[in-house]
Write a structure and sequence with these properties.
19% strand, 212 residues, binds NADP nicotinamide-adenine-dinucleotide phosphate, alpha/beta, Rossmann fold
């Protein structure tokens, strides 16, 4: 798949590297294109770099890997997003672990969908720490990736990318259900940092029967 990664921070660079290694074509987008090119060169294959707009144009799926405070501006810089698939991975935590910045109604993902006119927005990848992304097997248990969005074609692409990372993918339904899964990130932050469990934790859906 052709994947744009918007934001070359910890999450974006980690996801891009893993997916490039799996054979996907990555274009990193950065506010500073030289930074994106340098990152792509450090991976060495299947990766290029440029601006947010260049990366978005190149891709069939866009990973929004920027802080919530920069999300609206980053979407603007990404240019025309009509018919693009956007994965909103943002966490709406206040700085210094100060609790949620916005209440779940409406969710951050629904706001992203409003800003990214014509795009197919998905919420995912917000309930795991970046360091766990390369080791998603926890003993005999596989980490769950909770995914929601209104477009089945878009979700099936992201589901494939989730499987490539090593997740068990859980489809949580339409984008409005981001209201249910976004608070999981707050729980993750609370447990990891304030309750001292550390960042190598994530969520797993347990069930007795296989899904339909
Ligand atoms: N780190 C994790 O474990 C993790 C896990 C799940 C979800 N998330 C979420 O994923 C998003 C990215 O997290 P991260 O850890 O990769 O953050 P990060 O290391 O701080 O990187 C964020 C990147 O976003 C870009 N950016 C655009 N607008 C910005 C602004 N106004 N201020 C600062 N940076 C801006 C920058 O890239 P350029 O300079 O290249 O444009 C920056 O390097 C966040 O919403 C976070 O909550 C993170």
């Amino acid at each position: 798949m052709k994947i744009a990664i918007i934001g070359t921070g910890r999450l974006g660079s980690t996801l891009g590297k893993i997916w490039a290694e799996k054979g996907h074509m990555i274009m990193f987008g950065s506010q500073d294109p030289q930074k994106a090119i340098k990152l792509a060169n450090s991976i060495g294959f299947n990766a290029t770099g440029g601006t947010y707009e260049e990366a978005s144009k190149f891709s069939e799926i866009i990973i929004l890997a920027v802080p919530w405070s920069g999300a609206k501006e980053s979407i603007k810089k990404a240019g025309d997003l009509k018919d693009k698939i956007i994965v909103d991975s943002t966490t709406t935590a206040a700085p210094h672990l100060g609790g949620p910045l916005i209440v779940p109604t409406p969710s951050a993902a629904e706001k992203v969908a409003k800003w990214a006119v014509g795009a197919k927005v998905i919420k995912a990848v917000h309930t795991i720490g970046v360091d766990s992304l390369t080791k998603l097997q926890f003993g005999s248990q596989q980490a769950s990736l909770f995914v929601c969005g209104d477009y089945l074609d878009a979700k099936s692409k992201l589901k494939q990318l989730g499987l490539d990372l090593g997740f068990e993918v859980i489809d949580v339904g339409p984008l409005t259900n981001a209201r249910l899964i976004e608070p999981l990130a707050m729980l993750w932050i609370e447990l990891a940092y304030n309750q001292g469990m550390g960042t190598d934790i994530t969520f797993k859906l347990l069930r007795r029967r296989k899904a339909k």
